[in-house]
What we know:
By secondary structure, this protein is mostly helical. The chain has 6 helices and no strands.
Amino acid sequence: MHYLKQFTVIIAISALSELLAIFIPLPIPASIYGMSLLFLLLMTGVLKLKQVESAANLLLGIMPALFVVSGAGLITSYGQIAENFLSWVAVNIGSTIVILATTGLLAQGLIRRKKAKEAGGNG
C-alpha cells in the first residue's frame, strides 16, 4: 500500500509540473519543472524522503527497461540519422561533458558549503 501512496505523490508532482509547463511561457520541459519542484519540496521538508523513496528506488531500478523502446526507435530511424551522424555524436559528447562538469562543480560547491557550515558551527 505504501507504494501506491508514494506513486500518487510522484504522479501529483508530475501533473503539477505539466500544468506549470502549460502556464509558464518558457521553453522548459515539464520534467525539469517536476524535478525542480520535487527537489524544492524535499529540501524545504514539505515532502519527506520516506514519502517517495521506495517508489523512486523502484523506478530507478527499472529505468534501463524504459529506454529500450526509444533505443529501438533510434535503430529503425537510422537512415534519417545517418546523414547527420557526426553532428549527433558531437552534440552527445559535448552535452555529456557539460553535464559532467556542471554536476562535478555543483557537488564540490555543496561539499565545501557543508564543510564551511560544519566548521562554523563547531568554532
